[in-house]
Amino acid sequence: MHWTGFARLIVPLWGLASATSSSISEQDVAAHVIYSYAGLEPPAHLFDLIRQGKVGGIIIFGENVNASLPATMQLFQDAYTEGTGRSGFPLLTMTDQEGGEVRRLSGGPELSAKEIGSAANPAQTAEDAGTVAGRLLREYNFNTNLAPVVDVFQSPANFLNAFNRSFSDSPEVVQTCAERFIAGEAAENVLSAAKHFPGLGGAGEANTDNEPVTIESDWETLQNVDMQPYQHLIAAEVPMIMCSWAIYPAVDADRPAGLSSKWIKDTLRGQMGFKGVTITDAIEAGSLARFGNDAQRGVLAAQAGMDLLLASGRNATQGEAIVDALMAALQDGTLDAEEFDAATGRISKLRKGITV
Ligand SMILES: *[C@@H]1O[C@H](CO)[C@@H](O)[C@H](O)[C@H]1NC(C)=O
Ligand SMILES: *[C@@H]1O[C@H](CO)[C@@H](O)[C@H](O)[C@H]1NC(C)=O
Ligand SMILES: *[C@@H]1O[C@H](CO)[C@@H](O)[C@H](O)[C@H]1NC(C)=O
Which CATH fold would you assign to the domain 6-11+19-352? Predict the structure, then answer.
């Protein structure tokens, strides 16, 4: 499979010497944080942070998009390469271009995941959608799409299915469509993030963006329905996985998956063997209300084994606060320096493989 190739070619340079908190720079820490901003005009402060190397990537929403956005995205990369804090690798530049209802950029894929999954030839239709998404992202100077949705809906009322965002209620169809969508994007040099591990298809009407969601599925259902497509995508070396903010008592009754080391370290990496990059859903999500402020949530997510933290609250101060909190947590030992360094290595390896 051609989209699996590049990850294997790069010799990992990290982890040769064991990291200590004092050997981890602010630039290394910043590589973990994805920033956002409000409106059409990015604030000058964000460009300053990029030049200083305090930004790992940018996520774009509909409110940021007009015909000047491709030029703006280039300005972000230029500020980074000309700045003092550069790593030599491009910034991660991402958006949610799933298809159907969820499209931030003007263009395709026009078909929703549901329409793709119910097409006469779902596999080819999914690959075509991935190609369309990949080409559009490239035209806009993006390198990463936070898609496809790999959630297997289990009731029609499911909040993702209500917007036609799930390919199917069949794990096999979801797996095939996701794999081919990712292949279509990879052929256009765009990274995909399969989401939302271990799966939001067992949820009802409540959305984790707004409120706490508990999914009571038993372990057997999680494994055989929700996680089955991930096992397949991991074998095919999917570059990124976004984790869910729902709570799954079958594995961890206290922490949402993206804040749970039982889910991320033990299950996703340990049991399922994922070696790519993990990314959180929105750190300001309503479902995390009881886990402190955004900076505290960022530290909890990093402790659980999350690599990239999504500061999507539409201001640059949110990302800055998270970088500062991660630095402090490394210094006082709240975060394990060696584990954090391994995560930085995964991110660098991912960024090294992208062309802007
Ligand atoms: C996009 O918005 C920015 C900020 O308002 C503006 O300067 C620019 O001219 C707009 N681009 C287009 C093509 O309308
Ligand atoms: C979902 O798809 C159905 C057709 O399959 C359509 O009637 C409905 O309007 C779509 N819903 C949304 C929110 O797009
Ligand atoms: C930035 O966004 C976060 C998350 O929505 C919010 O908590 C914070 O108050 C915002 N800060 C500013 C300065 O707007």
Answer: TIM Barrel (3.20.20)
